[in-house]
Amino acid sequence: MSSLSRELVFLILQFLDEEKFKETVHKLEQESGFFFNMKYFEDEVHNGNWDEVERYLSGFTKVDDNRYSMKIFFEIRKQKYLEALDKHDRSKAVDILVKDLKVFSSFNEELFKEITQLLTLENFSCLRMLELCAQPFQPTPAPVPAPLTSWMSNPSTVTHPAVSGGAIGLGAPTNSAAILKHPRTPPTNNPAVDYPSGDSDHVSKRTRPIGISDEVNLPINILPVTYPGQSHSQAFNTPDDLPKTVARILNQGSSPMSMDFHPVQQTLLLVGTNVGDIGLWEVGSRERLVLRNFKVWDLGACPMSLQAALVKDPSVSVNRIIWSPDGSLFGKLEDIGNLEFFNGVAYSRHIVQIYSYHGGDDVRQQLEIDAHVGGVNDLAFSHPIKQLCVITCGDDKTIKVWDAASGVKQYTFEGHEAPVYSVCPHYKENIQFIFSTALDGKIKAWLYDNMGSRVDYDAPGHWCTTMAYSADGTRLFSCGTSKDGDSYIVEWNESEGAVKRTYQGFRKRSLGVVQFDTTKNRFLAAGDEFSIKFWDMDNNQLLTTIDADGGLPASPRIRFNKEGTLLAVSANENGIKILANVDGLRLLRTFENRSFDASRISETVTKPTTSPISSVAAATSSGLADRGAPVMAIAGMNGDTRNMGDVKSRLTEEANDKSKIWKLTEISEQTQCRSLRLPDNLRTTKISRLIYTNSGTAILGLASNAIHLLWKWQRNDRNSSGKATANISPQLWQPTSGILMTNDISDTNPEEAVPCFALSKNDSYVMSASGGKISLFNMMTFKTMTTFMPPPPAATFLAFHPQDNNIIAIGMDDSTIQIYNVRVDEVKSKLKGHSKRITGLAFSHVLNVLVSSGADAQLCVWNSDGWEKQKNKFLQVPGGRTPTTLSDTRVQFHQDQMHFLAIHETQLAIYEATKLECVKQWVPRESSAPISHATFSCDSQLVYASFLDATVCIFSAANLRLRCRINPPAYLPANVSSTIYPLVIAAHPQEPNQFALGLTDGGVHVFEPLEAEGKWGVPPPVENGSASSMPASSTVGASGSDQPQR
Predict the structure, then answer these.
(1) pLDDT in tens, 650-685
(2) Which helix (H) or strand (E) holds 180?
(3) Thinking of the domain 471-594, which architecture would CATH place it in?
(4) Which of 319, 384, 613, 646 shows its CA 20 to 30 Å from the CA of 447?
(5) Is the pLDDT of residue 624 over 60?
(6) What are the CTLH domain coordinates in residue numbering (predicted)?
(7) Is 471-594's fold the same as 665-878+885-1008's?
(8) Strand partners, 1036
(9) Residue 719 has what DSSP assignment?
(10) CB 101 within 8 A of CB 119
């Protein structure tokens, strides 16, 4: 059936459900086999309607489809049989036994005999019945390996060896997709449909028909859909979307061994090399921010054997370098001494070093761990117990888990019979686990319970194997190389515990251990045969091969950035090539004309002992010379190489020149930037709330008259990405029904109400209020799915919990915060601490806190586990400024999840969340207009702020220093009323230099810098060294400041 036909079926299902044609809905679900309604299935099971249970299930799977279908059909028929016996209806029991259960006798004859014997018992509903109910049907003829996921729901108490997975019972919280022949995952060729995946656990727990799939639980038979072209992360459409164009060539100075892109800042690249160096590159500007040479931080704390190894052979190599999930930490493995890896034997010790990253070039030592006896072969980060942990594996055949903050060992997993080569932590349905591979080719899986491995498999190649999941975590792949040089990439069937697909295209004898990576749930890539090879995940044949203009080693190291727009590839002569697709080239173009950051250059001049440039020079003259290595050259801004002394001299001169000539970038004419007023043929009043969709292809606004407006950009020849841009006008979108998304405003004055909304992560639903009930809207149909929480009190701010999307924090106009569980329609907690209405809420998933702000100018920090208040502090209103009554205070977390931006009409301030200390502050001078709103750019490098005089200011987020000012004539007519100004500002989720304004006249404007500029202004020089040395409070216009006044 075509994707169009499928989409039509889903729309019919949704219509039938809304019109209450329940029987027809379930009949269509069963006959089409497209959508398994777990809620309906559970209800029928609980009601004991076994005939309907089996009939419905048969639309999705048959008895003999697989061993899981066999088990579940057996359970259904066994229950029918036992109920018939319980009612003393022996004729019906015999009929069930002969017609329904006889089919299973060939697989487990003994169990069938025992069931038959129940016919002769008078009181069978006793212990024996309970034993049978607890003893699920298990086929016996052919031993089947434990599935890769079934062990998660039935953890074994056997420590070693691995045990087979338990059977799936009707009441177990198992992976539903593994049970069914037809999985409940969307067809890959139908981007317009987004309904609950088979891995969602909420379908078995729902007690109330409200919510959003994957985020807040909708009724299972209301299909969450996204409008065409929308998705949380844009998928590739053709091989042309692969990053294949060589956009940058970097020179690290020593051979790259491991690389990793920052999870948020898409152009930050970590590199570890064969001489122990680590480098941090901003690949957009070709600038190396950090270079660190290897050293043991505390040699005295190391074992004598390690000290002896360092004395005997001081050569080092970075085996693995990786960012933590939030990008605040990174870790590396050092290979010390002589490692004969191709013989599978390590003759030396390794150590693990963890660094903390604080933005820019600020890298600090965090932890040094002597992790294993012998070598440490891999490193990963995980959050198993609500705290960040480091996972290591080594030659001592163990896997160890360490607290990333303290270095305390949490777990040791034993069971491998050979050195452990790699680890792959993951989670499904809130169950955390680790896959590990060893040099004997064994794959094992572990839960965080010290109960031993759960599975035991043989990896193709039986030697060096690594494992990785697709970006959405639903597909598992492994890549391995045998001792003979045969390489394999395979996809695993987690339900069956077997290889599902083997990808073709490797040369007969690879010249090294092949490294691979996955991207965007669509493509696989591997470095082999002096090139990069690509596969479509759904096709085992080689898709394409590129040589990146030549100069690659036999088995190049590769790494995609998170969005899949860039690919880092190791090259000969210590090089790194950055490959890009169209979106990647556009991303890099923003850095084309970027000069060296004056603040960093100034730091080089004033603080040579701590600057990255000085440390590079020191490493060149001492560290590398000690190892007998040649003097390192670095890549210049124009791609040439030069001696470090020449570069430093030139940088010093450039720093002195730039600090003299810098001036604020003023934009006062429409030709000086790209701006676009979005079409607004609907009669609306002021725009009160504004947000980009998570996909970046649309903008959603909420007007003060309670009407929502949705502007969508279409994919076409002029806009190949389909994302929001100031170059092309979007469509003010409405469904064919012509209805509007309008909030409940009964018994309220919408002009006096405080509007608020929150958008679901997949852009399918918006939760919104304008002084009345909270409404849940379907973004495709604009229909109101439900309303709840009628005032008083009225909702004034909404925020989803980042880890449990069934939990919503709702700020109220009575100064309370209600923690509402959508699944059970219950207020779990009511937080009291403010004295006026709530105007801002922001969660940190790293700190597990909720920060709230109110019209009382107070900030509160709440623990998101128990909801206790941890700290509170009032904003310090500058002298001479009198804020208006009920002035809003907004909060937004920085991408590091440790700091947040506080926005008040009198100031912008950045706070450290744990201590609630103000670390940066910007205050406009007394004669300036108040601030109306502000927001971080998507990479948290900029702060966009709007003012009541229609001015827009752009700040460097690191120090809150003004770098660009957009004056009203740049986007408003000359004769416009002074009452027209921006009320709200929103940042694009992927383009850091794009933002949008919502105005008091109902207009929305999108802004981007000129393509030739690529960025908003130039950051000002820092007078006293590093930006981090800036005092906590800095008032613009104060005496002694050369920063232009606003």
Answers:
(1) 434 444 444 446 788 999 999 999 999 999 876 668
(2) none
(3) 7 Propeller (2.130)
(4) 319
(5) no
(6) 34-92
(7) yes
(8) none
(9) B
(10) no
